[in-house]
Design brief:
With about 300 residues, this protein is mostly helical. The protein has 16 helices and no strands.
Length: about 300
């Protein structure tokens, strides 16, 4: 028994080690751009120019295609000059950073509130036409941004919101994704809880606020993380609905860094991704649980 079980144990250990090694390689590949961005943000502009101005330097030096170029991952001299330039000497960065905050936070708060209420209605309230109405509502989620662009533009113009943050915030608050996700999560909550609360004389608002919301907190955490990543990275909406560059978010700023500001681009990219990383680390446990129970798969 023991001798026969050893090959099986060795096979399991080998299989586990192989899977772990493969996952480590994949993780390394995915993390490589982040590591390169971070290390390059600690280099001087001159060193970055030497590392990335390869074609021009080789041409000027008369070097052929077989010439060797030394690309360094680690900086020769660690400096925070690029961060100082972005945070202190470039007020445009901080202005657009706060523009992003003032756009993303209202969308997250508004969509979470609307989605929680609508998801409760679609999952726990029994009314005629509930499923067809939910299907129609979710169909809007399947439409790409380009399809709804013109209707949103016309509505923003009619409401007098064009070229203002409201043209982005209003469609974001009433987007269908949050409703779909929280509704799928609430379907896992047994209806017996609601029946017991009704026997005790609780109304819908009390049931929603004291029973549903505490039980759906992981789903809300996952929704907040997904919404933050989605709207923090938006580019098309600000370019179309905001004509004033001083009102546009930070995501647009990174696309306008010119060739002479490569060091600033690396530092700004690190600062740009920091809020997303911190938010994910803070809500990691609830995020994973919320994704699992909502039934959404990547």
């Amino acid at each position: 028994m023991n001798s026969g079980g050893r090959p099986l144990q060795l096979f399991k250990l080998l299989k586990k080690g192989t899977i772990t090694a493969m996952l480590a390689v994949i993780a390394g590949i995915l993390l490589a751009p982040v590591v390169i961005t971070f290390t390059n943000s600690l280099m001087t502009e001159r060193e970055i120019g030497i590392n990335y101005g390869l074609i021009g330097q080789m041409t000027e030096a008369g070097l052929g295609a077989d010439a060797f170029v030394n690309l360094k991952l680690l900086p020769d001299l660690v400096t925070l000059e690029q961060y100082g330039e972005v945070l202190i000497h470039s007020p445009r960065f901080m202005r657009m950073f706060w523009n992003s905050v003032f756009l993303v936070v209202p969308i997250i708060v508004g969509q979470t509130a609307v989605a929680a209420l609508a998801a409760y209605a679609f999952s726990k309230l029994r009314f005629r036409g509930r499923e067809p109405l939910f299907l129609i509502y979710v169909l809007t989620m399947l439409m790409p941004f380009q399809v709804t662009l013109v209707p949103n533009y016309i509505m923003a113009d009619k409401l007098g919101l064009l070229h203002s943050p409201g043209a982005i915030i209003l469609p974001g608050v009433f987007a269908a994704f949050g409703v779909f996700m929280l509704r799928q999560y609430m379907l896992h909550i047994p209806y017996t809880y609601i029946e017991a609360a009704k026997i005790d004389g609780a109304g819908h608002w009390r049931i929603f606020s004291t029973i549903i919301i505490p039980m759906v907190k992981p789903g809300i955490s996952a929704l907040v993380v997904l919404l933050f990543v989605d709207y923090w990275n938006m580019v098309e909406q600000p370019l179309i609905f905001l004509d004033d560059p001083f009102k546009q978010p930070l995501s647009v700023y990174l696309s306008r860094v010119n060739q002479g500001e490569r060091g600033i681009a690396f530092a700004a990219s690190m600062l740009y991704m920091t809020p997303m990383v911190l938010l994910f680390l803070y809500a990691e446990t609830n995020f994973i649980e919320g994704i699992q129970l909502s039934g959404i798969k990547g």
